[in-house]
Amino acid sequence: MNAEVVLDTNVLVYAISTAVGEAAKAEAAGRLLAAGNAGISAQILQEFFVTVTRKGPTPLSIADAIDWLETFEDLPCLPVDASLVRHGADIADRYRISYWDGAILAAAHRLNASILYTEDLNHDQTYGSVRVVNPFRVN
What we know:
The protein has 139 residues and is of the alpha/beta class. It has a single domain (5-133), classed as 3-Layer(aba) Sandwich (Rossmann fold). The chain is 50% helix and 13% strand. It has helices spanning 9-16, 23-34, 42-54, 62-71, 82-95, 99-110, and strands at residues 5-7, 38-41, 77-78, 115-117, 126-127, 130-133. Strands 3-2-1-4-6-5 form a 6-stranded mixed β-sheet. α1 crosses α2 (23-34) and α5 (82-95) crosses α6.
């Protein structure tokens, strides 16, 4: 299973956002999804579900969140296994980042992605063979 890029949880959350203040981010996230070269991990889907059903001013219903999960089923999705957890922990330790970010970077490595789109890590920093790009960054 391969993907050119990996979309972090925040990209998926913005892609479905209807908030007026997030219109530019929603548009950017939608373009990334439409490009057709992106992958995700099961962790990203889990985080998406929790975020959209429990956080924000208007959480989604469980049914609506599941509908969105079904929309993302066409993306290559890497399962979380013991090896991925270990690799994520190693990355987190090496770069002094959270385990959760390390696990997403580990998934990007395993998917052979060269870019991780996220707003959670340092823009343009490279972690092994994966470069972080903040798609919402205003120059």
